Amino acid sequence: MRKNIVAGNWKMNKTLQEGTALAKELQAALTGKVINCDVIICSPFIHLASINEIVDGKSVKSGAQNCADKVSGAYTGEVSAAMVASTGAKYVILGHSERRAYYGETNAILKEKVKLALENNLTPIFCIGEVLAEREAGKQNEVVKKQITEGLFDLSAEDFGKIVLAYEPVWAIGTGKTATSAQAQEMHAFIRQTLVAKYGAAVANETSILYGGSCNKDNAKELFSNPDVDGGLIGGASLKVDAFLPIVEAF
Ligand code: 13P
Q1: Residue 96 annotated in active site
Q2: pLDDT digits (tens, 9 = 90+) for 198-226
Q3: Which of 105, 134, 168, 188 is catalytic?
Q4: pLDDT attached to residue 44
Q5: Looking at residue 177, what is its pLDDT?
Q6: What is the CATH number for 9?
Q7: Above 90 in pLDDT, residue 1?
Q8: Alpha-carbon distance 36 to 5, whole Å?
């Protein structure tokens, strides 16, 4: 059966010292504990090597928040998938709505990033989701289907089987306005149906689909109780152990 996953997306928060302290605290809190999900922390690039010295890769795993769409070379300021993998990180968030909105990441660029991530044995956590105007116009399914189709549907079934999806309605990110449990389930079921149509039920049923957007300790249990919600991608509430741990324990 597909994995339950709770992943923290630290975004552009925490100095190196603060980040390593948080990773240590989280690892200590989860060591020896029975947990019913994979726990991943997705830190800024510069934290990765240090964090991979701290986490055990079992109860806590690590990932990046982005990687380049090029292999290597004269791309000042970029960090390649191979570089991310060389730190020991196993995951990479790709296509976060903040990357799409502020850094011009298109589905075509993301397709390249996904390919390079997979070639370097990184598991992409591929983000999709509509903005408020699209939801108000009833276009959320269309938008999400296009993001998945253009970003991922060139992959073979075998490669698609390595992808984790994260549905993050943009209107719910950092706003305190969570999607209702019913809205999340409805969209996740639609996403899974879209995967069934392309890759068949076996692949679709093995794909973890996370929810993201103002997920916190008070709403995680209800969101995660939906049959098609396989965990969360957590922003603000991943920045403190006492806010993050109860979300991990919601499973
Ligand atoms: P918040 O949990 O802060 O709303 O952020 C969600 C998110 O964007 C995770 O990637």
Answers
A1: yes
A2: 999 999 999 999 999 999 999 999 999 99
A3: 168
A4: 98
A5: 85
A6: 3.20.20.70
A7: no
A8: 9
Task: Specify the number of domains making up the chain.
Answer: 1
The pLDDT of residue 176 is 86
The DSSP annotation for 125-190 comes to EEEE---HHHHHTT-HHHHHHHHHHHHHTTS-HHHHTT-EEEE--GGGTTTS-PPPHHHHHHHHHH
* Residue 200 CA, ligand 1 centroid: distance in Å: 30
Query: Whole domain around residue 32: which residue ranges?
Result: 5-248
Helices 140-152, 107-119: inter-axial angle, 10-degree rounding: 50
Rounded Cα gap, residues 215 and 240, in angstroms: 14
Q: Which residue has the tokens 């570089």?
A: 83
pLDDT tens digit string along 51-64? 999 999 999 999 99
Strand segments (E) across 111-251: 123-128, 164-167, 209-212, 231-234
Residues 6+ apart with CB under 8 A from 39: 5, 6, 7, 26, 30, 59, 60, 61, 248
Pairing of strands 123-128, 91-94: parallel
Structure tokens at 98: 């903040």
Q: Are 82 and 118 in contact (CB under 8 A)?
A: no
Start-end of H helices in 34-93: 48-54, 81-86
- In angstroms, the CA 56 to CA 62 distance is 9
Read off the pLDDT of residues 28-87 as tens digits, 9 standing for 90 and up. 999 999 999 999 999 999 999 999 999 999 999 999 999 999 999 999 999 999 999 999
Amino acid identity at 246 = P
Mean pLDDT of 118-128: 98
Indicate the top mutation candidate among 5, 11, 65 to test ligand 1's pocket, ranked by most ligand atoms within 8 A of CB: 11
| Residue of 47, 96, 105, 130 marked active site | 96
